Amino acid sequence: MTFPKPTAQERIEALGFDYRAQPKRRLDKCPLCANREFVSLARQDRYGFPVRTDGCLTCGLVFINPVMTDEAYAEFYSRTYRDLIAAYGGKPKSLDSVERGQVRYAKLLGDYLEPHVGTGMLLDVGGSTGVVAQAIADRFRLREATVLDPSAEELERAAARGLNTALGTIEERRHPGPVRRDPHVPDARPLYRRPEGSREGP
Ligand SMILES: [Zn+2]
Fold it and tell me: Ligand 1 centre from 175 Cα, in Å?
């Protein structure tokens, strides 16, 4: 007797992550431009969680709202995120397979950034094992590249590539340079702050 394979939805439910129960905060201003007019774009994410997404009518930023608290995100990234990706894709994702995907992504990202990037410094927010940061830094001959990520295990690989590493989230950091926007960053403003002492904006 054979049993049907579980679907992605069943695998995700088996993880037991309760999105509704996560502590959240509601944003009444756009995290980038601080204007207050939004449009509701989505009520569910690809995992089936009831994640509400708004778009700012002034600057176009798309952001999750209400958004999980920093503590809830820290817990999510350390305990649930990789398992969730694996459940969604149907197979466990080792860091090696994550890195293979990042090599392809770095090529596409580099092509996209080509007309816009000068030389300087790079901060990759949510930069995982550093494959993308290294590829972009090499391609554009950047002086310095830093990977910011909440996973110590992934940062070990970034450090082994010779990159600077910072454990944590963007809310706790300031850094100049071009950035790769991570869709999970709850507050975008620190990304766009002008570095202290600099004349050119990031
Ligand atoms: Zn805005």
Answer: 21
Whole-number Å distance between alpha carbons of 172 and 167: 10
* Å from CA of 37 to ligand 1 middle: 8
Q: 87: part of which helix (H) or strand (E)? A: helix 81-89
Q: Say yes or no: domain 8-188 is CATH 3.40.50.
A: yes
What's the token pair of residue 135? 């590829």
**Domain coordinates of the chain in residue numbers?**
8-188
pTM beyond cutoff 0.85 = no
What's the gap in Å between 51 CA and the centre of ligand 1? 19
Interval between CA 30 and ligand 1 midpoint (Å): 5
With CA atoms as reference, report the closest residue to 145 among 168, 156, 161: 161
pLDDT tens-digit profile of 103-136?
A: 999 999 999 988 887 778 888 988 999 999 999 9
Q: Give the pLDDT confidence of 71-95 residue by residue, as tens digits.
A: 898 889 888 988 998 899 888 778 8
CA of 131 to the centre of ligand 1 (A): 30
Instruction: Report CA(36)–ligand 1 centroid distance (Å).
Output: 8
